[in-house]
Amino acid sequence: MELKIKAVSPKIGGEIPLPYYATPGSAAMDLHACVDEAITIPVGGRRMIPTGLAIALPSPDYVALVLARSGLGVKHGVTPANCVGVIDSDYRGEIFVCLQNSGESDFTIQPGDRIAQLMITPVVQASIQMVDELDGTQRGSGGFGSTGK
Fold first, then answer.
1. For residue 30, what are the β-bridge partners?
2. If we measure between CA atoms, which residue out of 132, 121, 128, 37 comes closest to residue 85?
3. Helix (H) or strand (E) holding 72
4. For a surface tag, which of 13, 51, 96, 118 has the fewest beta carbons within 10 Å of its beta carbon?
């Protein structure tokens, strides 16, 4: 699968690296902050961080997902505000990452910092069928803790 990437900032490929897989086993590519100066996210605050990139997925059979970097989330409480960003196959604008800070102190993003991950995955569009009853399962309608701790 080929992912076309367009630099919407002249910094891309120079000061700001293209997305890349950190290891051969990585499922997602790192995205970087494409900013001119440091941006501080106060405790409880959110900031839109540009990546300087736009992408073209090859078809509606794919979606790009913007995911948290585990180190930022676990160590600092900094994660995407919408949990998972969805980039549809027909979107061609710049990718932004809205980061929120649920940590205990203000957090500063420096130009070029890795801020999120970009995963490309297949999509299945379901056809909808209205029914009067759903098939039964062992779990049934049990939710939120119904299967134990």
1. 20, 117
2. 121
3. helix 70-76
4. 13
The DSSP output letter for 20 is: B
Query: Whole-prediction pTM value?
Result: 0.88
Q: How far apart are CA 81 and CA 97, in angstroms?
A: 8
Sheet holding 29-32, edge to edge: 29-32, 114-122, 62-67, 85-87
Find out whether 86 and 63 touch, Cβ atoms under 8 Å. Answer: yes
Residues 68-102 as b/e (b if ≥16 CB within 10 A, e otherwise) read bbeebeeebbbbbeeeebebebeeeebbbbebbbe
Round the average pLDDT of the chain to a whole number and report it. Answer: 94
Name the residue with tokens 């604008």: 93
Write out residues in the chain with pLDDT < 70, as ranges: none
